Amino acid sequence: IYRDLLRNYENADTISIDTLSLEELVQEERAKEILELNRLSEKVCYLHTSLVYYRNANSKMGQTCYQVWKTLLQRVGGSPNTWNILGHTLGISLVDLEYIKNSVKEDPVDMILKVFMQDDNATLDKIINAFVKLERFDILKALEEPLNNMSECFTREDSGYQSESGKGKREVITFPKILQVHLPPALSKKYVENYKPKEPSLRPSINWEKSKPQKECPVLFLTYTEDGLETALNIQGYVSNWVDSPQVKVLTLNGKREEVVQHPEKFIRENFEKADFVVPIITTGYLEIIKSHAPQVPSSNDNLDYKYVNFIYNLIVNHYIHATGCLNEKVRSVLPQDANVDVLRSISMYPDLMPWTYETNFDEHFKSFLFIE
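Given the sequence above, the corresponding C-alpha cells read:
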C-alpha cells in the first residue's frame, strides 16, 4: 500500500511539473502571437475600416477587402453577443447598440462596422486592438492572413495608394467617394450629431410654414394599432370640439372602409400625400408591429387601421428619407395618456416619428401645428 501511495504521489508531482511546463509553453506561444499581432496592427494602422466594403471581384484588392469583411462577419457573428461586446469596446454608444439589437434586421456585425467607420480615425488596427483586449485570439488568428494580404495591396510601390502627409506620417487610406454604405437615420453620425430629440415646438418651421398649402379643411391622417384605439377616438372627439376654429378633418381607414377596401394601397398613398399631418399613435403594439416587419394577423373585428400600420409606416420612412432629406415635415406623433416607460424609451430610436406630443397636450400643440389660434 505504501509503495502504491508513493507511486501515486510521484505521478502527481510529475503531472504538476508537466502542467507547469505546458502553461509556460502556452504563455510563450501567446507572447509570440501578441508580438505578431502588434506587427499586424502596425501594418493596417493607416487602413480605414471602410476599405473592407470595397468590392471588385476582378482585382486582388477587391477580393482581399471582401475576405476581411467576410471573416469578420463569420467569426464575430458565430459567437453569441460578441458583436455587442465588440461595439462597446470600439466606443459605440449604448443607445446605438440597443437600436441595432432591437430595431435593425441586418447583420449586427455589419452594422457595428458601418457605425464605427463613420469616424475618420476608425482604422483597422483599432479592431485588432479590441480583439486583443477581449482576448479573442481565435478571431485574430482567422483575420491574420486576410489582413496581411489586404495590407500588401496598399503597400506595394506600384499600388498607387501610398501617400505621405506633410509631416512625414502616412495618411489614412479610405474610399469615401466610391463606397455606398447605407445606415438607418438613427445610426447616421451626420444626422445624429445635429439631432436633439425634443418635444415639438409650438410652431412649425419657417420653411414649412411658407411652403404649406392653404386648405379650407386641413387633414390629420391617424395610424394606430389596437391598443391605440381609445386615443384615436379621443383625438376625433378633441377635434370635433374645436368650435372656435376652422374645420379640421380626421381621417381613419376604418372610417372610410367602403372606399379603402376597393383599392387600399391606392387610397392610402393618395391620402398620405394629401394629409397635412400623418399622426401615428405610439403604443407598445405600434412599436412591436413596425419593429418586426412581420405580416399582421387581422384582428377579430378586422379593423383596417390595424391592418395597414406597416404599409403606412413604410410611406413615413420613405417620405422622411427621400422626400425631405431627414427633415420631418409630415409626421406628428401622439403618445397616449397612459404611455409606459418602455414606449418613452423606444420612441427616441425612431427619428422619423419625431416630434411627438402627449395626448393631454393635443389641443394646444396641434392647433399650433395647423396655424389655428
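The chain has two domains: 44-187, 206-369. Try to locate this feature in the C-alpha cell string yourself.
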